[in-house]
């Protein structure tokens, strides 16, 4: 995945809180944190429902520019630095969804990507980096500790790479689209099981990530008329598929407990996650991502 060296990055879409305190957190790290990571990674709903916080809303904290504001200015920076790459992907994903929803007569409300280290306070409660990346509907932000991508490789066995990271972030912004369109409300209390609404929500977010990838090199950025992402190869897409498979419920359960229990699934199997990402990528059509109509 390559970015246009001359493309401008909009750092206002990223709140860099790395190094800042995130407030009181009820969940600790260590082995307990790892279990939560294995079971709740990529959760696109309120973290407090999984016991990841004290269960009360917390201030989202002061908004800062942080390191990205100083260092991430162009696509050339995104080609060199991981945090700048996150800025660029955030910009690309949001431009696509803004254009897509406008074509369908709907409005897109911009979200923010929050970079943090260790712990963070959100409108969904306080959480640690052990939760993995997540989207909070309450404040319409995607939260990400960049250290997760090391976990993706070392603990989940994914090959990693720039587009694996892009897939993760595009998945979380898929949850933002679901929140804006009211799909998130369909989950209710149906949060576990292979045929649960939670699984369908997660698989749809995978499909939406694929839809964005389909259009990533043809979506012009505001002010330039050129796509921010200039190149996306088959090898890049393979990185995304590999990451999707690595965090399938069946693979995580097999690695962590030695057995597979579909009744406890929240995100879908490895094959399902790959299949729905692929469906979105091949079609480029969000209307082909109706996982709720399947089965």
Q: Please, what is the oligomeric state?
A: single chain
* Number of alpha- plus pi-helical segments: 10
Rg: 18 Å
Instruction: Tell me about the largest β-sheet.
Output: 4 strands, mixed
Count structural domains.
1
Give the CA-based shape: globular
Q: Stretches where pLDDT falls below 50 for ≥5 residues?
A: 22-63
Tell me the fraction of residues in β-strands, as a range. 5-15%
- Compute the number of strand runs: 8
Provide structural commentary.
This protein is 43% helix and 9% strand. The radius of gyration is 18 Å and the shape is globular. The chain has one domain. The protein has helices spanning 30-40, 66-71, 75-80, 82-103, 148-154, 162-181, 197-215, 234-246, 249-257, 270-283; strands at 2-3, 14-16, 112-115, 119-122, 125-128, 134-136, 141-144, 229-231. Strand 6 and strand 7 (141-144) form a beta hairpin.
Secondary structure layout:
Blueprint: E1 2-3, E2 14-16, H1 30-40, H2 66-71, H3 75-80, H4 82-103, E3 112-115, E4 119-122, E5 125-128, E6 134-136, E7 141-144, H5 148-154, H6 162-181, H7 197-215, E8 229-231, H8 234-246, H9 249-257, H10 270-283
Helix pairs in contact: 4-6, 6-7, 6-8, 7-10, 8-10
């Amino acid at each position: 995945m390559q970015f246009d060296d001359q493309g401008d990055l909009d750092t206002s879409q990223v709140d860099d809180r790395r190094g800042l305190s995130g407030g009181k957190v009820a969940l600790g790290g260590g082995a307990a944190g790892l279990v939560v990571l294995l079971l709740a990674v990529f959760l696109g709903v309120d973290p407090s429902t999984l016991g990841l916080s004290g269960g009360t809303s917390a201030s989202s904290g002061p908004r800062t520019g942080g390191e990205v504001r100083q260092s991430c200015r162009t696509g050339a920076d995104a080609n060199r630095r991981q945090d700048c790459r996150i800025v660029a992907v955030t910009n690309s994903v949001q431009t696509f969804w803004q254009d897509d929803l406008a074509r369908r007569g709907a409005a897109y409300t911009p979200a923010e990507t929050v970079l943090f280290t260790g712990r963070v306070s959100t409108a969904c409660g306080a959480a640690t980096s052990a939760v993995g990346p997540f989207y909070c509907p309450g404040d319409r932000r995607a939260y990400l500790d960049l250290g997760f991508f090391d976990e993706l490789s070392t603990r989940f066995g994914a090959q990693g790479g720039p587009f694996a990271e892009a897939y993760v972030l595009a998945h979380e912004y898929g949850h933002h689209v679901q929140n804006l369109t009211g799909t998130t409300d369909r989950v209710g209390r149906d949060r576990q099981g292979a045929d649960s609404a939670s699984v369908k929500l997660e698989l749809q977010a995978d499909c939406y990530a694929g839809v964005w990838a389909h259009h990533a090199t043809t979506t012009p950025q505001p002010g330039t008329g050129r796509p921010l992402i200039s190149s996306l190869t088959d090898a890049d897409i393979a990185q995304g598929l590999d990451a999707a498979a690595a965090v399938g419920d069946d693979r995580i359960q097999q690695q962590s407990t030695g057995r597979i229990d579909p009744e406890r699934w929240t995100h879908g199997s490895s094959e399902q996650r790959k299949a729905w990402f692929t469906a979105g990528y091949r079609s480029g059509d969000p209307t082909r991502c109706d996982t709720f109509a399947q089965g």
